[in-house]
């Protein structure tokens, strides 16, 4: 048993050293090159590698994850991507941006409007932008559609986020302490049943965004905000009720725009 384990360990170490050396070789190859060229060549090479893995009956799911990390490391070696998204911080759009670019070593910047996201990418002040395109309950985002129709930017990628709303408060606040519920009007509407059944004595007021609402709630006793887990984490809030949306099939499709 001992000899068998030692042989296995030594063989695995040899293979892993070979993998590390190949990673070093890949990094050395792309140093100093244009990130767009690296991005395109790396993605094309990875697609071929995943196809080979499929032919060899190697699990495609884990192969895809592995090569996505390698691709992200390659891009970070060249230079960090500049990603802009519709803010503020901890918005669902940032959640989508993190889902897409979290392994790329990117620098993320929130912007105040969808129009500003488009303008920033068009002016080459960012490499990519992330904006919402459509919601399963609310329909298409008209401003995004209009800007796409009148821009030279193209859709470079997309992802879908399930919109899960939570009740977030200043740590230590209980249901009985809540006198005011705040959030973006869409979030308030999407949680109407919960508010009417569990918080019927509280006032309800809109705020410009779910993130703004969470930040305000965490700073004030007796105030509860409806927002995301990311917002609760970023602003130090406590989630006292999870998944309070009326409909579980609430999804938003986000797109990546680039030149």
TrEMBL record:
GO biological process: L-phenylalanine biosynthetic process
Keyword Lyase: yes
InterPro entries (alphabetical): Preph_deHydtase
Keywords of this entry: Amino-acid biosynthesis, Aromatic amino acid biosynthesis, Lyase, Phenylalanine biosynthesis
Involved pathway(s): Amino-acid biosynthesis
Molecular function terms, GO-annotated: prephenate dehydratase activity
Spans traversing the lipid bilayer: none
Coiled coil: none
GO cellular component: cytoplasm
Residue ranges of every copy of the Prephenate dehydratase domain listed in the record: 82-259
UniProt KW DNA damage keyword: no
Protein name: Prephenate dehydratase domain-containing protein
Source organism per UniProt: Ignisphaera aggregans
Origin organism lineage: Archaea, Thermoproteota, Thermoprotei, Desulfurococcales, Desulfurococcaceae
